[in-house]
Design goal:
Largest sheet: none
Distance between the termini: 80 Å
Order of helices and strands: HHHHHH
Number of strands: 0
Shape: extended
Length: 168
């Protein structure tokens, strides 16, 4: 009886979280649509500028959906698409679903449903999951480069302070 109540509670909690995610996605979509129509009313802006700006905004909104979907549906996706859900699971903050699919594909941890999803995304955009992984890798490398530049700048400032203290 206790196990049944626990399972019902978990189901209701998961269902509530899923509904909350859907409502948040709907709110973001409505805001995006209002933003689109607001930009149409701007003066002295040609159609190309409007569509270019909105295209970037929609792409960023899509990435937001992807990140949110990975977090909200992490356990479900790990259960549905992976052979060994604990090896490289979904649900890690800051990772896109496509990236996790590609990483698991490379280590042969996708089941048949995961491979189908990866192939479907590949049909929508050529090598979508691979591009997503490359994007995340390049993002991490850029972050490391920025950190190294900051570190070199800090070391240079410290050496300058030591030099000035020595000769003043």
């Amino acid at each position: 009886m206790k196990k049944a109540i626990t399972n019902i509670w978990r189901f209701l909690l998961g269902f509530t979280l899923m509904l909350t995610g859907i409502v948040l996605l709907a709110i973001v979509k409505v805001v995006a649509i209002f933003f689109y129509f607001a930009t149409l009313k701007r003066k002295r802006q040609n159609a190309g500028e409007i569509l270019t700006g909105n295209g970037y905004m929609f792409k960023q909104t899509g990435k937001g959906y992807d990140l949110l979907g990975n977090i909200v549906g992490g356990q479900l996706f790990s259960w549905m698409f992976l052979k060994q859900p604990l090896q490289f699971p979904f649900g890690i903050s800051g990772e896109m679903i496509s990236t996790v699919l590609e990483l698991n594909f490379k280590i042969e941890n996708l089941n048949k449903h995961g491979i189908r999803l990866r192939d479907l995304l590949g049909e929508l955009e050529f090598d979508h999951c691979e591009k997503s992984l490359e994007f995340d890798i390049n993002k991490a490398l850029n972050f490391i480069e920025k950190y190294k530049k900051i570190q070199v700048k800090f070391e240079t400032m410290e050496r300058t302070k030591e030099f000035m203290a020595k000769y003043n």
